[in-house]
């Protein structure tokens, strides 16, 4: 799935771009220790964890795009880190459940 | 941020005491204690423990031996993954005069496996103080992760006090934290953050002194910062 396809499915807003993002899997979690332990690469992370540390964890496990639910605001330091680390960020008005359902064609990310 | 520079900044700002609480580690405790001793500044120490609930909590002690024990106990409950300095930064352990003893390789940015009740028990058994950090923040706080301040079923408290961050409006939070003593502290990550906000009280800046102050709920917070 491309980033544009993902955005279309969740009524998303692009916050940080990654034009060559390859998204084949997804994981839904708000607990970063859980993301670190279970999320795999080439994935979309569906979360409300709008924090700088999310970028660091996503870099470790190979997340391509972070989907921030409920249109939570993305702090400037998180944006800057995402640009530096080349992780896309998309916000959506959907809940974590609704976003997961909308992206159900992706395979569950596993590690 | 070297220990001597932190102490100098706090002294220059007229602070009577400081507390060092690095994330998931108390290994820099001996350095800050020595710098504070030389400068005649009161100093408590411990760690900002990121619990299994992904909540930041402050464990405070006044014994170097207990600080060592705390570090070992947290480290045993961290993921086996090593720190990636490019992602999370270097984690130097230093002497009081700024010699680097080691670069910590544990991943201190991660949560440990101990939950809040377990950490509270560890801290209180050793006579320390346990404080819920920056409770007004949406991330890594009791309210952000758990929606409330957790309390034991049988009554009592896990936390001896709660901390408001430098930008929190005290009046907005008063109702939610009315069962607790409140402090405001700088959570300084850079030297320029030191002493920008503070907490005042009548009493000694020791563990026993703070316990008494917290029991009396006798703290007075500095004004908040309206911009960083």
Q: What would you note in describing this structure?
A:
The complex is a heterodimer of chains A (111) and B (228). Chain A is an alpha/beta fold and 111 residues long. Chain A has 5 helices and 6 strands; from the N terminus they run αββαβαβαβαβ. In chain A, β4, α4 and β5 form a beta-alpha-beta unit. The radius of gyration of chain A is 12 Å and the shape is globular. Chain B has 228 residues and is α/β, with parallel strands linked by helices. Chain B has a single domain, classed as Metal-dependent hydrolases (TIM Barrel, Alpha-Beta Barrel). Chain B contains 8 helices and 10 strands. In chain B, the strands form 3 sheets. In chain B, strands 1-2-3-6-7-8 form a 6-stranded mixed beta sheet. A two-stranded antiparallel ribbon of chain B has the order 4-5. Chain B has a two-stranded antiparallel sheet with strand order 9-10. Chain B is globular and about 45 Å long. The mean pLDDT of chain B is 96. At the A-B interface, α2 and α3 of A face loops of B.
Characteristic key phrases:
heterodimer; A: 111 residues; alpha/beta; Udp-n-acetylmuramoylalanyl-d-glutamate--2,6- Diaminopimelate Ligase, Chain: A, domain 1; six-stranded mixed sheet; 5 helices; globular; B: 228 residues; TIM Barrel; two-stranded antiparallel sheet
Number of domains of chain A: 1
Assign the CATH topology of chain B.
TIM Barrel
Instruction: Summarize the largest interface: chains and residue counts.
Output: A-B, 13 and 14 residues
Distance between the termini of chain B: 18 Å
Supply the CATH architecture of chain B.
Answer: Alpha-Beta Barrel
CATH top-level class of chain A: Alpha Beta
Helix count from the secondary structure assignment of chain B: 8
CATH topology of chain A: Udp-n-acetylmuramoylalanyl-d-glutamate--2,6- Diaminopimelate Ligase, Chain: A, domain 1
The CATH fourth-level homologous superfamily of chain B: Metal-dependent hydrolases
What kind of oligomer do you see?
heterodimer
Q: Characterize the overall form of chain B.
A: globular
Helical percentage of chain A: 25-40%
Order of helices and strands of chain B: HEHEEHHEEHEHEHEEHE
Provide the CATH top-level class of chain B: Alpha Beta
- Range of strand content of chain B: 15-25%
Largest sheet of chain A: 6 strands, mixed
Placed side by side, the strands forming the largest sheet of chain A appear as 1-5-4-3-2-6
Give the mean pLDDT of chain B. 96
Query: Termini distance of chain A?
Result: 20 Å
């Amino acid at each position: 799935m491309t980033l544009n396809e993902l955005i279309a499915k969740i009524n998303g807003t692009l916050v940080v771009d990654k034009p060559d993002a390859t998204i084949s899997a997804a994981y839904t979690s708000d607990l970063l220790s859980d993301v670190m332990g279970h999320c795999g690469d080439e994935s979309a992370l569906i979360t409300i964890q709008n924090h700088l540390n999310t970028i660091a964890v996503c870099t470790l496990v190979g997340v391509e795009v972070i989907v921030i639910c409920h249109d939570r605001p993305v702090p400037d330091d998180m944006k800057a880190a995402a640009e530096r680390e080349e992780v896309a960020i998309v916000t959506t008005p959907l809940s974590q459940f609704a976003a997961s359902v909308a992206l159900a064609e992706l395979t569950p990310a596993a590690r | 941020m070297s220990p001597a520079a932190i102490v100098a900044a706090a002294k220059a700002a007229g602070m009577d005491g400081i507390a060092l609480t690095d994330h998931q580690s108390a290994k820099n405790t001996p350095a800050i204690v020595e710098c504070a001793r030389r400068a005649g500044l009161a100093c408590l120490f411990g760690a900002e423990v990121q619990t299994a609930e992904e909540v930041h909590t402050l464990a405070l002690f006044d014994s170097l031996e207990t600080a060592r024990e705390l570090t070992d106990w947290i480290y045993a409950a961290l993921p086996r993954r090593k720190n990636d300095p490019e992602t999370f930064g270097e984690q130097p352990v230093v002497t009081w005069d700024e010699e680097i003893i080691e670069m910590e390789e544990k991943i201190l940015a991660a949560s440990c496996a101990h939950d809040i009740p377990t950490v509270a028990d560890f801290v209180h058994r050793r006579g320390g103080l346990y404080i819920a950090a920056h409770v007004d923040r949406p991330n890594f706080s009791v309210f952000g992760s758990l929606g409330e301040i957790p309390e034991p079923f049988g009554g009592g408290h896990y936390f001896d006090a709660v901390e408001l961050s430098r930008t929190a409006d005290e009046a907005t939070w008063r109702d939610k934290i009315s069962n607790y003593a409140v402090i405001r502290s700088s959570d300084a990550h850079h030297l320029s953050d030191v002493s920008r906000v503070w907490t005042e009280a009548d009493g000694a800046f020791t563990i026993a002194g703070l316990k008494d102050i917290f029991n009396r709920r006798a703290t007075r917070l500095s004004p908040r910062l309206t911009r960083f």
